[in-house]
Amino acid sequence: MKKNYSKSRLLKRQLLIAFIASLLTVIGICTVIFNVMYHQALNSVDKHSRELADKTVNTVSEAYYQMNLSAAQGTMSLFGKNIGTEINAYDQHFRDQEDLITYVAPSAQPYLRDTCHSSGIFFILTKDGIQGIDLQYGESCDQLAEELFETLDQIVKEEPKYYGYYPTFRDFVYNHRQTPGGNYLKAGKGQIIAWDNLINYSEYDLCYGIIVNEANNWLVAPVNEVTKIESIALNRKLDTIFRKYVYIMLASIGGVFLLFIIISFILSKKLADPVVSEHDMLVKVNEMKTAFLSDASHELKTPLAAMSGYAQNAEMDLANGENPALVQEKLKRISSESNRMALMVTQILDATRIEEGRMVLELAPCDIESLVRETVETYFAVLNKNNNRLALRIPLELPKVEADSSRLQRVFVNLISNALKHTKNGTILVKAEEEDSFVKVTVKDTGSGISEEDMPHIWERYYKGKHSETGTGLGLFICKFIIESHGGKIWAESEVGKGTAFMFTLPIK
Q1: Ramachandran region, residue 214 (left: φ > 0; alpha: ψ -120 to 50; beta: rest)
Q2: d(Cα 200, Cα 345) in Å, to the nearest integer?
Q3: Mind spelling out the 3-state secondary structure of 194-242?
Q4: What is the pLDDT along the chain (509 residues), one digit of tens a residue?
Q5: 332: how many CB neighbours lie within 10 A of its CB?
Q6: What is the DSSP string of 5-54?
Q7: Are 471 and 292 a contacting pair, CB within 8 Å?
Q8: Is 436 left (phi over 0), alpha (psi -120 to 50) or beta?
Q9: 394, 367 Cβ separation under 8 angstroms
């Protein structure tokens, strides 16, 4: 007999193929967008890490210079007191300033070598010039002292008014030689200068001081190195986190696409079946599946939109230099939405297995209490969006049942998911008890309840209820099939506005 095909079905098949092509295009665009977001986020992290490193170095080095300047000024004061005490104790008298310098200068190197940096230069400043002594070797270094003062002239150039418009820093120090003072220059290799005067400790006017050269080598260089290492480590950590959750997101999208291909293949075969006497029945089934596909698309689109929104917020947080912990929280939410999507995909696959007769139970002794707790720990935080509380009342001595634990867990997930979805700020109770030769399990909520017109149809495949806007209509259909396959029964009691209780029984082992 020659096969004839319905033109309307062929048209639907073509539309379905166009839909799959559109979905593939959207997934490709999303992949490109996520890739761009990923690289932009890494660039933002790298930029802000460098800025943070610079701020860290500036903050730490400022405290470092202040501390070392105070230490150098204290050392100069202590040195002046000791030399002044010697001069006063021995009633020393000097014919001129050169005799005084000849007495003071040799004392500087052995006294200051152990209390100051080895790179320090001890100097004596007079109106005629500068005499310098290398504290490490005790050698004269007048020329080096002159060069260091010339470098310190940058301080006067930056703040000429503060230093009285003196032409050089040396002139400023000499004109303020009787007042202990100091300053530092962080530019270049870094320098610290502190000075004092013997007039503060004896009758002689002699300005002396110390210049610590290459001060940056003691802190700034190591801090730069450490911050560079920490910055690289942070980048790698964020790179790992971002890559992980982007891959999860892309894998979820790929899973959805694969699921649509499977569904499309199945529907395409059925849409291409020859026209037979059961034409009206096939049309009805086709309409049901088309409605299911539309609803499934909507349900899967919601977590995808949420993941996209959290990803964009994470990118903005990174661009604004927010705490990485905030970014990590948003990435955790992306993971939660992907788990939610995975539950829906599993539900659809279970319905497909039931329809094709491919669902096989693997029975084994099963502990209801352990199974419920494992299910709650795995899925409750993911599914609970309405601030509900959970109560468990399962006795430890409850007998084991002969069941397929993975399928039975699907029953608990579906029932708890339904309860959480239709309950807000309420309580979900999971209770189990021994009853004759069965274990009776109750999942009860304080939610909106089920209307009388919906109650007879809740176990039908694809039926969502006239007042329900979410879901695929497969959850209770799957629950009924699994429980009855175990030799038990399942039923529901509900009151509109007060809540619903789903109960099922399983034979005791």
Answers
A1: left
A2: 87
A3: EEEEHHHCCCCCCEEEEEEECHHHHCHHHHHHHHHHHHHHHHHHHHHHH
A4: 334 445 556 666 676 677 677 767 776 777 777 667 767 766 776 677 667 666 766 777 788 888 889 988 999 999 999 998 888 887 667 778 888 888 888 888 888 876 665 568 999 999 889 999 988 888 889 999 999 999 999 999 989 988 888 999 999 999 999 999 999 998 888 899 999 999 999 888 999 999 988 877 766 666 667 666 766 776 677 677 767 766 776 777 677 767 767 776 676 565 544 444 445 555 655 665 665 565 555 556 566 666 676 677 777 777 777 777 777 776 766 766 676 666 666 667 666 767 666 777 888 899 999 898 888 887 777 677 788 999 999 998 899 998 988 889 889 988 988 888 889 999 999 999 999 889 999 999 999 898 888 888 888 877 776 656 556 677 888 899 889 988 899 999 999 989 999 999 999 87
A5: 13
A6: --HHHHHHHHHHHHHHHHHHHHHHHHHHHHHHHHHHHHHHHHHHHHHHHH
A7: no
A8: left
A9: no
Task: Kindly state the tokens that stand for 487.
Answer: 């030799």
To which residue do tokens 């409750």 refer?
A: 380
